[in-house]
Every structure is written in C-alpha cells, then in structure tokens.
Amino acid sequence: MDDIDRQVVGCLLRDGRATFAEVGAQVGLSAPAAKRRVDRLVASGAIRGFTAVIDPAALGWTTEAYVELYCRGTVSPQDLRRSLEHVPEVVSACTVTGSADALLQMLATDITQLEQAMERVRKEPNVDHTESVIVLSRLIDRRT
C-alpha cells in the first residue's frame, strides 16, 4: 500500500459514496485510475466492503451496554461467535485479555429488550455468567 492508496482509503472513509471522479480529484488521479486503485484495494482485502453508518438513536436503539462474557472451560473464538451470532442486539464482540473471555457491545430499544437479549446470551451452553455496564453517554465515537 502506497501513499496514494492511503489517500484513496481516507477519501472513502470520509465518504463511502464518493464517485471515482471525486476520489480521483482528491488524490490527483483520473476516475478510471481511481477505480483501478479501489478495485485493487478490494481484491487485496484492504477494503473489506462498503456499508452505511447508522445512527442507533434514529432507529430507536437508545440503550447500550458493554457486557463481559465468562465461559465454562475453554471455548474457541469460533464457538463463541456461533453462540452470539443469533442475538441481533450483539453489535460487536471480541475476545479479550483478562478474566473475561469476551467483551460484547449490545444495543437495544430499552432496558427490557436488553435484559431479554442478555438472558438469551446467558442461556448458551458455554456461558457461565456475564457482567455488564450500561452506557450513560457517549463521549467520543471516532467510528463515524
């Protein structure tokens, strides 16, 4: 990846709907050259896809929690993923260091929905228990 590739990625991070002409103008390339760069970045896996960034509050997802997940015995990351994929309120999950096995980010419309989703997570056979914290306000969110 060279400097122009990094500039192309930066343009797409700012506006994923930018045209190849707009990207090219920002990085000093023609539209076809910008398209070739983007296609190459996609083919190499540097760009994994394009998506819409959603405002959770606009969709009514106003309750957010971070949940530490503790498992029984040793559980592979693939097994954890399979256990969590069917819970739509789990918007992000990762394995972590420390005493917890995984950290989940969950979004729900209210506390009742969050509690029900956490119960579904806890019912998984490999889950021992969870510890959660509810987000009061988001101070910094650089993903957007």
Describe the 3D structure.
The longest helix is centred in the N-terminal third of the chain and has 14 residues, at 31-44. β2 (90-95) and β3 (102-108) form a beta hairpin. The protein folds into 2 domains: 3-44, Winged helix-like DNA-binding domain superfamily/Winged helix DNA-binding domain (Arc Repressor Mutant, subunit A), CATH 1.10.10.10; 56-134, Lrp/AsnC effector binding domain/regulation of amino acid metabolism (RAM) domain (Alpha-Beta Plaits, 2-Layer Sandwich). The mean pLDDT is 94. 38% of the residues lie in helices and 21% in strands. The chain has helices spanning 3-14, 20-27, 31-44, 77-84, 111-122; strands at 63-71, 90-95, 102-108, 127-134. α1 (3-14) packs across α2 (20-27) and α2 crosses α3. Strands 2-3-1-4 form a 4-stranded antiparallel sheet, with helices on one face. It has 5 helices and 4 strands, in the order αααβαββαβ. It has 144 residues and is α+β, with helices and mostly antiparallel strands.
